[in-house]
UniProtKB/TrEMBL annotation:
Species of the source: Arabis nemorensis
Source taxon at top rank: Eukaryota
Record's signal peptide: 1-19
Subcellular localization: Cell membrane; Membrane
Name the UniProt record assigns to this protein: Leucine-rich repeat-containing N-terminal plant-type domain-containing protein
Length: 472
């Protein structure tokens, strides 16, 4: 130990004697001490998760020294070490693994400088979290995360709403149920709120007007019902909104159009109806728009055509499948130069496919138009099909066929247009010959035999008969 270190330790001892501080310190070789009560609180809290057999004896000289615990970080406050970050669970290979019979000890809430607390895959047996003690962390805690804890059941403690310094609250893939606590809306400092993958029920609280700094809101994969709250449009800083895989219903509120910074809007697999809101066009910043699996367009209006898709030039992923869309594929979609994924499958779209225009989109890597009532022939090049591979589907369009060279194998479920083309050629030749013949009826017989001998389609005979009748 150097003489400087010795002097520093002597100074701390004298300070303790003069000021009468009740908690002695534990000194480590890095030159900074740790308050004894802080270390004891940390060790007791950890023992509650990993078992009493753990005592920290292999740590030298303490959790903030040369051999710190994986998942524990410290910071200096008034020349003393205090725990600021605590992650429990096997995040890394050398992290402390949680015991099957773990429990949250009250000493955890004595870590008064704790800024970040994470529980990762710790709670596997049914466990409820007490409402008490959380308020003790309210003065400093900025991040609280419960990730992948299937054993966490019951309601989310409403006292978490007292953690007013929180900037990040992540409750992801647990077993929490019940309604969302309304006092969460008082956490006005939040930048990220993720409550996805739980069993939450009830409606979404209409109290988002205080979330002026919120960047990410993810309530997906729950059983939330009711309509989208109107206050959703007041989260002016929001970048990502994911409410997918719930039971939400009603119309898209026009307030969505106020979210000028939104890059992701995911509402897939809900019960939202009432048509596509033209206010979505106003969100020019959108890169990902996913509305699939909603009965949104079951009216007679051709809402697809009315949308000005060309105004949404930043779109990268657009999924409008299984929505009951009607009308033709809007030409405005062919103007989206950044588009990589386009899902229009399983709707009621009609008309032809703008093949050449879609093929010119430089970034397009997946196109799904299967399960519609599209007609005519596809005019994509062979190079396009090779590039797309299985990421292109056009099957289950009864009157849609593919124009191709004979040596190329057609996509599964899509008919070739070769026979139709040959049939059209015979009609054109017949029309020319009929003009030169005096007896149209005898020519009709000749053409009929020609068609049959080459095995062409039966319905072609009807077209030729019409030609003969017209010439008569």
């Amino acid at each position: 130990m150097s003489w400087i270190h010795s002097v520093f330790v002597l100074f701390l001892i004298l300070r303790w004697c003069i000021t009468g501080e009740s908690s002695p310190v534990v000194t480590n070789d890095s030159g900074a001490p740790m308050e004894k009560t802080e270390r004891e609180a940390l060790y007791s809290a950890i023992q509650g998760f990993v078992g009493d057999s753990w005592n920290g004896s292999d740590l030298y000289p303490d959790p903030c020294g040369w051999t710190p615990i994986q998942g524990v970080s410290c910071d200096l406050h008034d020349d003393l070490w205090y725990v600021t970050d605590l992650t429990l669970g096997l995040v890394h290979e050398n992290s402390l693994s949680c015991n099957a019979s773990l429990k949250i000890k009250p000493e955890l809430f004595e870590l008064k400088h704790l800024k970040s607390l994470t529980f990762f895959n710790c709670f596997t047996s049914p466990t409820t979290i007490s409402k008490e003690d959380w308020i003790n962390l309210g003065s400093n805690l900025e991040s609280l995360e419960f990730r992948s804890n299937p054993g966490l059941i019951g309601e989310l403690p409403e006292t978490i709403g007292s953690l007013t310094k929180l900037k990040s609250l992540v409750v992801l893939e647990n077993g929490f149920n019940g309604k969302l606590p309304t006092n969460l809306c008082g956490l006005s400092s939040l930048k990220r709120l993720v409550l996805a993958g739980n069993l939450f029920t009830g409606t979404i609280p209409n109290c988002f007007n205080g979330f002026k700094e919120l960047l990410i809101l993810d309530l997906s994969r729950n059983s939330l019902s009711g309509t989208l709250p109107l206050s959703i449009g007041e989260m002016v800083s929001l970048l990502k909104l994911d409410l997918s895989n719930n039971r939400l219903e009603g119309k898209l509120p026009r307030e969505l159009g106020f979210l000028k910074n939104l890059t992701l809007l995911d509402l897939r697999n809900n019960r939202i109806s009432g048509g596509l809101s033209k206010n979505v066009e106003n969100i020019r910043s959108l890169t990902d728009l996913v509305l699939s699996g909603n009965p949104m367009c079951n009216s007679s209006d051709d809402v697809m055509v009315k949308m000005k898709w060309e105004n949404m030039g930043n779109l990268v992923n657009l999924d409008l499948s299984k929505m009951g869309l009607r009308g033709e594929i809007p030409f405005g979609l062919t103007k989206l130069k950044r588009l990589r994924f386009l899902g229009l499958n399983d709707n009621d779209l009609t008309g032809t496919v703008p093949s050449k225009e879609l093929e010119t989109l430089p970034c397009l890597g997946a196109l799904y138009i299967n399960g519609n009532n599209l007609t005519g022939e596809l005019r994509f090049s062979r190079k396009f099909y090779e590039k797309m591979g299985t990421r292109f589907k056009a099957s289950k369009n009864p009157n849609l066929c593919m124009y191709e060279s004979q040596e190329y194998v057609t996509p599964l479920g899509l008919k070739p247009c070769k026979m139709m083309m040959k049939g059209n050629l015979v009609i054109k030749q017949t029309w020319s010959n009929l003009k030169k013949e005096e007896s149209s009826s005898s020519m009709g017989v000749m053409v009929t035999r020609h068609v049959l001998s080459n095995g062409f389609m039966w319905d072609l005979l009807l077209e030729l008969s019409l030609i003969v009748l017209l010439l008569n």
